[in-house]
Design a protein that fits this description.
Helix content: 55-70%
Mean pLDDT: 68
Structural class: mainly alpha
Shape: globular
Number of helices: 29
Order of helices and strands: HHHHHHHHHHHHHHHHHHHHHHHHHHHHH
Largest sheet: none
Low-confidence stretches: 25-33, 54-70, 82-179, 181-185, 645-658, 664-684
Length: 684
Amino acid sequence: MENGCTSHWLLSRIAGSESRLANNRAFRCGSIEKAASYLIGELLIINQAEAKSNKRLPKFVHKADTYHKACARCKARGKTCAYGQGAVEKQTVHKPRGQASSVHMPVPMLVPPISSAPSLETPPESVAASPPTVDSIPVSHHVNEDPEAEPDLEKNRAYYTAHGRFAGQVAAAINERAGLIPATCNQVPLVDAPLFGDLNLPSQSCALSSSTELPPRAYADQLIDIYWQHVDPMEPVLDRQRFLENYEKAYSTPITPLCADYDLWLGILNVVFALAVQRQELNPLHQRNEEANRFFQRAWVLLPAESMLWKPGSLELVQCLMLMNRYLHCTNNQQKTWTTAGLAMRIAQSMCCHLTETPLLKGSSDDKALKQKVWASCVALDRCISWSLGKTSALVLIPSPPPSSPQQLGENAMHDTLGLRLHEIGNQIQLAQIQNRTSLAARFRPPLLSQQDEYHNAALQLDACLQDWENSIPSDWQPRNLRMVTDRSSRAERYLLHLRYLHHRIFLYRPMLARFYAMKPDTQPLHKSPSLSHRLLRESASMCIEAAQQVASLVNETLEPDEPIGLLPWWYRIYYLHIAGANFLAAMFRSELFTDSVSQSWESVMLALRAHEHLSPYVQQCLWTFETLAARITGKPYPSMDGGGCGLMVDGSSGVSFDDIFKDINFDFDNFIFGPEDFGEGLV
C-alpha cells in the first residue's frame, strides 16, 4: 500500500470516530505522543470490529496491537525490540524474505515515541549499574536470529562495541546461584571508590569560617616534611624553594597577604596538608579521613570557579588543580575529578608549558624548567585520570626528550626522560585503539584487513617500542635491582615508573585478552590445528596475564608492614592490586592461562589486599567481591560479607557468561576496548 493510500485509509477509518477525537484532551492540546497513542487505540477498536466481519487490516496495525507485548519479550531476551521506533525504520529498508515488496509507512505517525528501544551499542544504564540478580538474568540473552547476519561477526566482535557486551550462555549454572547475594560493590579504585571516605564539598559561594586558618607550626612542619618525602617524589608538581619561602612568610606574617593570589596559595597549602595526612597509614581511619577532608574542604572553598575559568592562568592555579585532582581521585566525585584534570591541562597549554622553546615569552630558565616539569606532571595526570575513569585522554604533543645517554643525564632528568618516552608510547597505543573503533577507520580499511588484524599489526610495532624502552633503562633502574637502591625516594620513583610501564603493557594487550575470552571454547574443530591468528591471540592474552603477575610482584615488594608510611602511597597500591586481580579472574576461565604460577600470584594479591583492610572500608568490599567472583568460576564455596560460606558455584565450563562474571566489578571488556565515545573500562 502506498503512502498516499495509507493516509486516505487512515482518514476514512477514523472519520467515524471524529467526535471522540474532538473530545480527547491530548489531541486538542497538541501532545504528539498522547495523540499518537490515541490514534492507535482507535485503530485497535476498528481492528476488533473488522475481525468480527472477517475483514483484514493492513499488517502494520497488527504490529501496533502487539507492540507492548513484543517489547516485553524482547526486553526479557535482552534484544532490541523489533517493534521499536528505530527497528521499524530498519525494517522498511530491508525486505523480508519471500515478499516482493514491503509496506513503507510513515513511522512517526504510527509508532508513538513513548520510549526508545534498547540500543545495541550501549546497554541501558539501569542494567549496567546494578549487579545481576537470580531472577533477572535470562537463560540466554544473545541469540542471533538474523539469517543475514554478517559472516565475520564473531571475528570482529571483540573489537566493535556496536554488538554490545559480550554474550554467553548462563544455562543451568545461574539457577545454582539462587542463594547468592549479588555484589553491591561496583566501585573501582581511582575511579569512584571512596578510599578517603565520604567527602562532602561545600558550595564555593559559602565560605568556611576556618578556611584561612592554619594548624600549629610544629604540626604543620611535620605534615610538610611528610609531603616532600613521601608524596612529591611520586609525582612532582611544586617548586620546593618557592613553596618553602611562601610557607615561612605565611607563619611569620599570617595577617598580611603574601601576594595577590594569597587565597590560591592557601588552597595549595591545605591540599598539601590533606595529602600528607592521608599518607600516614597508622593513624585511625576515621581520624585520618576527618582531618584530611577538613583540609581539602578549606582548599575547595578558597578556589572559586571564577578564578579558574575567567581569570588569566598561572602556574600556581595549574598546580592547585593538579593537587586537588589527586585527592579527588580517591573520592566518589568522578565529575569533579575529570573536570579539574581537564582544566589543569588546558590552562597549562594556554601558558605554552608544552613547548620546549618559547622565544616570545619572557622568563628565567628556572621558570621554563618549572613549566616543563608541570607539563610532564599534567600529561601523567591526564593519562592516569583518563585510563582509570575510562575516558579518552588528550592526545597532546609531548616534547621529545634530548637524545642523551644515561651517563650524561642526572637522576631527575633520567626519570623525566623515561617518563616522557613512556607517555608518548601510551599516546600511540591509545591512538591505535581509537582509530580501530571508529566507523571512519573501518571505511578506509583494506578489504582483506579486519579490525582485529589491523590492531594486531599496530600492537606488534608498539610492543617493540615498549621493549626498546625497557632495554634503554640503566642496569640500576632494572626491577631486579630496585631493592638495592638506598635512597627511599629514588626507590619509590623507580617502582612507580615500572608499574606504569607494566600498566602500558596491560593496556596494549587487553584487547587481545578480551577477544580471546569472547571466543567460545568449541569454536576450533578438534581435527584442525589452531591457526596462526588464534595462536597469536592466545600468546597476547598470556603476555597480558604475565604483565599482571609482574604488577602484583612489584606491589608486594613495596609492602613494609613495620613502617608507619609505606614506600608507595597506599591508594596506588590498592589501585594496581585491583588491576592485577581483575586479570587473574579472567585467567581462571582458561586452564592454559591460570597456571600454578598465576594461582600463586592471585593468592599474593588477596593477601596484599587483606593487609590494606585497615586503610579503607572499600578494601573489605573489594576482597569479598573478588572472592565471590573466583568462587563462581572455580566452584568453591563463595564467602558472605559476615565471613561465612554460602552454596557452591559451578565452574566456567558449564556455560557461565564471562561478562556476567565481570559486571559485578564494573568491568566491561567490550566497552573498554573500542567504545563509541569513551573506553568504559572501570579498572584501568
